[in-house]
User: Fold these one by one.
Assistant:
Number 1:
Amino acid sequence: MRASGLFQRLGTVFSVAVIALLIGMITSAVYGWFFMSAALLFLIIHHTRHLIALEEWLLISDHTPSSIPSGSGAWNSIFAHLARYVRSQSKSQQLLDLELKQLQNVTAAMPDGMVILDDGDHIQWCDPVAEKHLGINLELDSGQQITNMVRQQSFVEYLTARKFNKPLVLKQMRHHRLTLLIQLVPYGKNQKLLISRDITSYERIETMRRDFVANISHELRTPLTVVNGYLEMLAAENSNDPEMQRFALAAMQEQAARMQRLVEDLLTLSRLENALNRLNESTVNIPSLLQELYQEAMSLSAGKHTIHLSINSDDLILGSREELRSAMGNLIINAIRYTPEGGEIDICWEVNNSKGMFYVRDTGVGIEPQHIPRLTERFYRVDNSRSRETGGTGLGLAIVKHVLNRHQARLKITSEVGKGSEFCIQFPGKRLIARSN
């Protein structure tokens, strides 16, 4: 095709020259050369004009088929071939752009960050996750040494040692309190792929597990030590004092009850945290439930506190009666435990702004502001000695939090040291049931 087109164009030029020569021979030599020169000049101008048009097209940035100039004669065929080539390249470019976009979407969806490094550990490319993990801005930091971005000494040593078979754990990255698992994977010609994975949540879970084991061990150690001590005393040959035996048995019974409460709370918390344990919903008569809890509170207080019950709404709640009884009961018991003798405790149920509101207010010792956000953590205590004296397990408010989460409710705590505290449970309107219905 190309050879035939070239011969065709050469044939055109030759034909024009022959015609001009024949005209000259017919007329005269002077006119022949004139016609021949004019024909050649026409061809030169014709081709020059098209060459200029082609050059101008090559200089523009938008090389689309529609922008190709139109031509005449042999140039029409040339521009037609060029248009087909541009259309083919445009389709190939569109396919490449689509594949690149899909690759970018895939990398952006991955939870791991990825950075491509050259043989000198310079940043060649990274995904958005790596930018967040390592504090990189690809537009500004492309070509920079990775150690300029990640300055932790352990990472510099890891990179220098070139022992990439084991990952590296980096903590407290930049301004983010992240814990990252770093792995370098060599590939290609002296290139490396740096993979970063956010393991902050796993570290937090592991920390919680360690704290849980330590706390539960500590909680069980004290009563077991007491029980074992009295058992050793009773097993001694000279332990015939009836009064001492009664005292020892009472103390062991108290510690055994404490361990039983701890185990029961742990089982309750485990059941609430189990995702397979679905909420067993029914219509809960809150006024009736609060009457029961009020009688239990009066019995527990034994006349040491003034307890008021205010029921300002007959609305019911859609939920689990057992779980709500546990949550509300824990708040009332805590108020009794941490309110000195002679203090007042108010228990209230009302509907406000289409939300069910349960309040427990006391005139107790109060809570300092820095402790309030952590009160619902397992075994978190503002005052360890006082909590153990009152028989608390340190799991009550953790149970309350999980119960409320299962009921889409929230707990609001306000307190002032020396003046008392208020614990408020807010139930969403969708769980309220009017008694008339």
Number 2:
Amino acid sequence: MSDAAVRSRGFFGEPSALGYLSFTETWERFSYYGMVALLTLYMSQQLLLPGHAEHVAGLAGFRAALESVFGRMSTLGFASQIFGLYTGFVYFTPVFGGMIADRFIGRRNAVMLGAALMSAGHLAMAFETSFLLALLLLITGCGLLKGNISAQVGTLYGDSDIAGRTRGYSIYSMGINVGATAGPLACGFLAATWGWHYGFGLAGILMLIGLATYAAGYRHLAEEPPRAVRAAAPPLDAAQLRVVAALIAMMALTVFQSIAYYQNGNVGLVWIDSHVDLGFFGWTVPVAWFNSIDPLVSILAVPPLVVLWRRQAARGREPNEIGKIAIGAFMAAGANLLLVVGGLAFDRVPVLFPVFYDVILGVAFLYYWPTLLALVSRAAPLSLKSTLMGTAFLSLFVSNITLGWLGGYYEQMSPEAFWALNAAIAAAGGILAFVAQRPLGKIFESA
């Protein structure tokens, strides 16, 4: 796409197609985070208990298979393992979704098919019998949608427009976080007021709105023909191979802080339900609402962070992409240490501790995840952009599988030791990113 074409602005000074992509992700993340905020609590407090578990098609065999690998699990341990596997595979399948789009059906068709499958999956969550089928549909649909729609943001900007590309991904991430903020609030309210399945049903309706939004913008999105019908790309040269290796290394370094970050939607909610004073003027705050705090902060913190980074850049002191990722890791470590302090200081932890925990995580997210996506979009070789964008989400697969497994140890440790462990994991990622800043930075500078 020419620089002249991409300079056609219609959405907050950015390409008009960015609006359709951002709003599609807003509705998709609204449904996803609304459902995820309920998932562990729903499983541990209802679905996996006697009288309900028997109704879930295939659950007994699924549990037997997991216990053959991980050993016997408590109800909470089983719920945490399912949470980790689901949220992990949601970020594993985009690798294959990117390959399918690159080679066969194109990005637009992949996103449309993915959104349709996710809509069916969310609606299936409203029924106990189809619980495992629902997770399978959601995992498959997200694989087709997630990496491909993220890659489409990068195609709206010319290769030389690095600042515009970063701006575009920041706006796109803001749309994600609007949905991630509203989802737990709306779905959590319905679940607390009328029952779990009303919350899950709302998630399905919202995903259908996301599908309609993308369909409305379909013609505005440019599309390259899939690789199977265009000339074969030339093989990568040595410099490009070094860039690919460096990108994969950078993705691996973000795994550490993602473990500490995404635990807030799993054991974090269980800990809040058991150890935090949720009373507020005679009203009990729904636990799922805490999952709206960090994405809300990730929206509100964008303008001041942009101002900060511009001032740092004017003085030649703005951290490079790897430096920002390291800062995000150290912030995630600090957030988890805050829960350690709260647990040690109080029998019933004041509500401000988990609030500030999520606030810090929201800022940490802005330092590391949009930065990683922008880096991949900028530096990846053209023939591998969708595949490597999907590979970036593979880091979240590893993170979520690991945090689900770690969650099984929560009942065997003190809460303070558990959160200290998560803080140490995030800090290790920050140290590794800091050490790698110079050698990897040189490779990316030449990309």
